[in-house]
Amino acid sequence: MTFTLPQAWLLLLPLGLFLWRYGRRPGPPMVLRWVLLVLGVGALSGPELRLANAGSDVAVLVDRSRSMPLDVDRVAQELVSLVESQRRPGDRVGVITFGREARVESPLSEVGRFGGFTRPVDAEASDLSAALDAAGALIPPERTGRVLVVSDGRATGADARGATRRLAARGIAVDYRQVSRPEPALDVAVVSLDVPATVSVREPFQFSAVVQATSAVTGIVRLERDGKVLVKGPYDFKPGPNLLPLRDLLEEPGLVHYRLTVEVPGDGVPENDVGVGVLRVEGPPRVLLLTAQPAGTLAKALAATGMALEVKAPFHLSLEALDGVGVVVLENVDANALGEAGLNALADYVDQAGGGLVMTGGRLSFGEGGYRRSPLEPLLPVSLEMREEQRRASVAMSVLMDSSCSMGMQVPDGRTKMELAAEGVTAALTLLNANDEASVHMVDTEPHEIFPLSPVSKGLPFDQVARGFSGGGGIYVGTALRAGSKEILRSEKPTRHVVLFSDAADSEEPGDYQETLAALRAANVTVSVIGLGKPTDPDADLLREVARRGAGRIYFAEDAMSLPRIFSQETLAVARATFVDEPASLEGAPDLPLLGPLPTTGLPQVGGYNLTYLKPGANVALRTLDTNAAPVLALWPHGAGRTAALTAEVDGRYTGELREWGALRATLEAVVRWSMGRPTPKEEAVVRSERQGNVLRVTLDLPPGEPMPGALPTAVLLAGDGRSGVEKPLHWEDEDRLVVEYPLTGSGTWHPVVKWGGRVVRAPPVALPYAPEFEPGSAKEGLKLLRALAGVGGGQERLSMTGLFAEAPESEGRVALAPWLVAFALAAMLAEVAVRRFLSAPRVRAAREKPVKEASAREPKAAPRTDVKPSVTTPKPVQEEPAEQKPEPPKPPAGVDSALEAARARALRRTGR
C-alpha cells in the first residue's frame, strides 16, 4: 500500500487533541468519533493498493519512409494484428507511424483491432529517435511495456541510441522486426556533387562528382545547369568510388542549379542516381519585379534608376528564386499566383533572411487579392480588415461545402481537409456585419443543412460548421446548386451570392446546373467556386463552367492550407468594401522625409486605392485627403527585413494622375532602396556552409578585433519549399569562430541565415539530392543498428510475436482506497449520531441531573438566618423536638417528567409554600 499524501497523517495529533478536549463523551459515541477521525485522515492521505496483475503495454513503431518496401503498410498491419491476438486481460497495444516525424496512429487499447494507416507521413526521412521518444510518452510511467520497431534500420536524424537509453531507464525494452527491400545486385549512386559555394561573374571554376558503384558497369552521365544539358555521354564505372572532374563559367549573377544524373540498366536503387549542387554567382542585390505588365509604367520607372532589375510574370516563389534578390516588388499580383508555399517562402525571405518587399495596389492586391489571413499579412505595415463603416450594401451569402469522403483526408499538420474548409468558412462569415445574412449547407449526394439563411445580428452557430461532416460519396454539384438557390432566393438583400466549395477531382452529377444558374443570374445572384485541387484535375472544367455561368470567380486551392485565405478573399471581393474606386487627392505625411528629399506639394490625384488601415508603429509617407484619411504609402521594418505598401495602382484603370507625376520615378526608387536595406559589408564577417553527408555545418568567422557579441549569434535554417525554419544558437569553436550543425532530414535546398547584433548574413545554400536513407549501404548496416538498440535495454529480434506480452513484466495496477474510507467514515458518523440519540440519551441526562440533586440535598444544612439587635433582649425560644425523618422515597427514573418534578420541588422549598 502506498499513500499519495502521507504527511496528512500528521493531522491526527492536533485533531486528536481537539477531540479529547472539546468532543469527549463517555461510552460508544466516543469510540465512533475516534474511528471517524482516523478514517477521515486516512482518506486525505490518498491510500492506494497496488496489484501486480494489470497487464502490460506494447507500442509498435512502423517505419513508412521511402526506403521501406512498397507493401510495408500491409506487412505492418499483419504484424499488429498478430500482436493484438496475444493480448491478455489488462494488456494494451498502440501504433506509432514515423517518417520525417512521428505520429500516434492508434492509442493504447485493450480492445478493438487496428484499422490501418490513415495519418499522412513525410517519407523523405526516417526519424527513429523521435518515434522512440513518442513511444516513451505513449506508455504511462506507472505501467510496464515494450517497444516493437518495424523498420529497415536506415534511420536519419538524431542517434536513436539516446532515446533507447531513456526507455531502458524506465525498464522498457526495445524489440525489432527488420523489414527491408531485397539487397540489390547492382547499385550505382551519386555520392556527391561538390560545387564552389560562390563564384564571380565570368570566373572559370572546376568542380567534381563522386559516383559509387558496387560492380563494374557502363552508364550514361548527364550534367544539367538550370535545366540545360552541358554534358551527356557514356562512362565506364569501376567498383568503388569514381571521380568525375567538371568545369564551367557563368555570365550572370544569381543562384545556379547543377544536376548530375547517372543512367545504368538494372540499377536496384534508382532513387540515388542523381546529384544536385547549388552555386551562388555573386553580384549586386537585384530587384525582382513580378507583374503582368513587363513594359508598364512601374517596370520602366525602376529600369531608369540603374538598379539591377529582373522582371518576371507572377509565379510560385521559392527561396532559390529569391537568392541574391534585395527586394521583391509585387505589382497588383493575386496571392494565388504565388502559391501557398511561395507565400511562406516570401515571408521567410523578409522576416528571417532580411529581404525587402514592396506591394502596390489594384483590384488583385491587398485584401481583394487574397493577402488577408496569408503569411504576408503580418509583414505589411497596413491591416487588411474590413470595417463596418466602409460597407456600401448588405450581403446575403449561401455557402455550399463539399463533405464527401475525400474531405476526410488529412493534411501534413494532422488536420483534415474538412477542418480547414470549416475554418475558412468560419473566417469568411466573421467578416460579415450585423446587416448581412448567411447560410451553410454540407453536400455529398444530398444537402445537409448546417443552419438556414439567418441574420448575422442574431449570431451564427460557428461551432456547428466545425462539427458538421457527413462523409458520404462524391459531391453532387446539381443537388448542391439547387439547395443554394432555394436558400439564397429567400433573401431580399441587394447583394446575393453563392459560394460552392468542391473537390476538383470528385465533382459529380451536375444535373440541371445550367438551368439553376440561369435562374440565379436572372435574379441577380452570383456564384463563385472554390475548387480543392489543381486546374488540371478531371472535374476542373466543370467548376470553371459553373463559375462562368454564375458570373463569379474561380479559385483552385492546390494546397488545402490555403482554404482559410481563399474564403476570406472571396468574402472581401463580394462585400466590395476594401477598394475605393473614386478619385482621391493626396497629402504628404510626417514620415515622408524617411525616403529622402521628395516633394510635399503638387501631389497627384489617384483614381482609386485599396482601403487599408495603418498598423501601430508603422510609418506613413502619403495619405488621402478624403474622409478615410487612409494610408497610400506606408512602410516599416519587420523582423530582419523591411516592407512598404503603396495602395495606389501604379499602372491601370485607377492610376489617375499618378502616371504623369514628375516625381513618380524618384518616389519609386526611394521606396525600393529603403526596402532593400543596408547590405552587410564583406569585411565584417564571413559565413560559410558545408554539407557532409546529411549534416550541414555553418561557420561564422568574425574579423580580427571584432568585439564579442553581447548575445550568441543564431542561425536559421530555411527550407527551399517554404517549410518553417529551424533556429539554433551558434557556439564558440575558437576565439574568432562560431559554428552550428544541422541534420538535414530530407531532400531539397536549404538556406542558412546567420543573425547577430542586428546584422543578417545569408550563407551559401546547400542541396541534398535524395533522402539520407538512400545513401549507398546495405541492409546489414540497418540490421546492425537495430541490434544495437535491442542490446541497450534487453530487447531481441522478433521473428514471431508469440510471447511478446508473456515476457513483459506485469504492471502494478493501483486501486484507490480513499472512496472506501470516505464511505466508512460516513457510516461511522451516522452510527455515532444514532447511538448518541437513541441509545445513550438517558445516561447523558442522568449525568446532567446529578449536580442539581446534590445542590438541593445541601440546602437544609444551611444555617438559619438571624437578625441581631443589640438594644433588645430576646427570650430564649423553646427548642422543639426534631421531627422524625421519614424514609426518602425511591428516586424516580430520570427523564423529562422527573426533571420537571425536581424543578417544582425546588420552587416550593424557596417560597415556603
Please report the number of helical segments.
19
Helix/strand class:
alpha/beta
Low-pLDDT runs of 5+ residues are 843-850, 852-857, 861-886
Q: Summarize model confidence as the mean pLDDT.
A: 86
CATH architecture of the largest domain, by name, is 3-Layer(aba) Sandwich
Number of domains: 6
Give the overall form.
globular
Note down, in words, how this protein is organized.
The longest helix is centred in the last third of the chain and has 22 residues, at 818-839. Helix 11 (477-488) packs parallel to helix 12. The protein folds into six domains: 2-52 and 815-844, no CATH class; 57-181 and 778-811, von Willebrand factor, type A domain (Rossmann fold), CATH 3.40.50.410; 188-273, Immunoglobulin-like (Sandwich); 286-384 and 579-676, Rossmann fold, CATH 3.40.50; 391-575, von Willebrand factor, type A domain (Rossmann fold); 686-773, Immunoglobulin-like (Sandwich), CATH 2.60.40.10. It is 26% helix and 29% strand. The protein starts with a strand and ends with a helix. With 913 residues, the protein is α/β, with parallel strands linked by helices. It contains 19 helices and 46 strands. The model is unreliable at 843-850, 852-857 and 861-886 (pLDDT under 50). The strands form eleven sheets. A nine-stranded mixed sheet has the order 17-16-18-19-36-35-34-30-31. A six-stranded mixed sheet has the order 23-22-21-25-27-28, with helices on both faces. A hairpin with a 6-residue loop joins strand 39 and strand 40 (726-729). It comes from Corallococcus coralloides (Myxococcus coralloides). Residues 846-868 have a biased composition (Basic and acidic residues). InterPro entries: Class_I_gatase-like (IPR029062), VWF_A (IPR002035), vWFA_dom_sf (IPR036465). Residues 396-570 form the VWFA domain. Residues 846-913 are annotated as: Disordered.
